[in-house]
Amino acid sequence: MLRINRAAAAATRAGVRTYSASPALRSGVRVPNLATFKLPEIGNEPTRDYRPGSAEQEQLMAEVAEMGSKTHAVPLVINGREVHTGNAREQRNPGNKAQVLCRYQTAGPKEVAEAIEGAVAARSRWEAMPLYDRQAVFLRAADLVANKYRYKLMAASMLGQGKNIWQAEIDAATEAADFLRFNVKYASEIYAQQPPCNAPGIWNRSEYRSLEGFVYAVSPFNFTAIGVNLAAAPALMGNAVLWKPSAT
Fold first, then answer.
1. CA distance 167 to 154
2. What are the alphabetically sorted keywords of the record (predicted)?
3. Based on the number of CB atoms within 10 Å of its own CB, is 108 exposed (0-12), middle (13-18) or buried (19 or more)?
4. Of 225, 88, 100, whose CA–CA distance to 163 is shortest?
5. Which end of the chain is more exposed for a tag (fewer CB within 10 A), N or C?
């Protein structure tokens, strides 16, 4: 909690060292705050029907056919770089065990240490970004999940997890988008929890810091939306996250 005294300006003029209430200013990133922000209306992502012969069913099945037509190479992503260790494992289609969907790289101690070091180095700058800017990142991600990448995520869930169209729709499309959007709403509600009263001449504020170090998110093999949420929720709150999808 920061205690912001009304006499701070006078103290500054007198040469007394004071601290800014803004993490962005403390980090050296100057962000003008010329308004308070009201979130867009947050609601559940509408489900689609995928009726036989509909355009949405045809587009989805075309994506399933395209994705299943070849074996994909999935690298590690460490500090924005694609990394190939040469130690790969196979992901097979549970409904067709002969089909190898992808070969994904696995990390060793060297790669894990590099990822941790990069995450910890990035945390302070990410945490210092104003909440509304972080929220905008995840609202944009939700729109991409619900629109541009909807069928790609659904196709991957159908092939990799053995789900039917409806199961993939409510998991990889709608619930993944819902997690991202509702987390933004809940973050605002958390930040809005402030001291209800103050001593005379004092104006208190609670600030919610990220965790020291990093968050290690291990997501389940069979639930796309939870894979999204376990990494995205702590990241939204200013944490650095190492994401490891589970193979089993």
1. 9
2. Oxidoreductase
3. exposed
4. 225
5. C
Residues whose CB falls within 8 Å of the CB of residue 96, separated by 6 or more in sequence, listed in order:
none
Say what the pLDDT of residue 175 is.
98
Please, what is the end-to-end C-alpha distance for the chain in angstroms? 42
- Please write the tens of the pLDDT for every residue from 150-171: 999 999 999 999 999 999 999 9
Burial code (b: 16+ CB inside 10 Å, e: under 16) for 73-90 equals ebebebeeeeeeeeeeee
Contacts of 95 (CB under 8 A, 6+ apart): 162
DSSP 3-state of 136: helix
Mean pLDDT of 110-130: 94
**Hey, which residues does 96 pair with through a beta bridge?**
93
109 φ/ψ sector (left φ>0, alpha ψ -120 to 50, else beta)? alpha
Give, in order, the Cα–Cα distances in Å from 140 to each of 53, 61, 133, 176, 181. Answer: 30, 25, 11, 13, 9
Give the other-Cβ count within 10 Å of 243's Cβ: 17
What is the C-alpha separation between 95 and 227, in angstroms, rounded? 21
Q: Which amino acid is at 187?
A: A
CA dist 248 and 220 (Å) reads 7
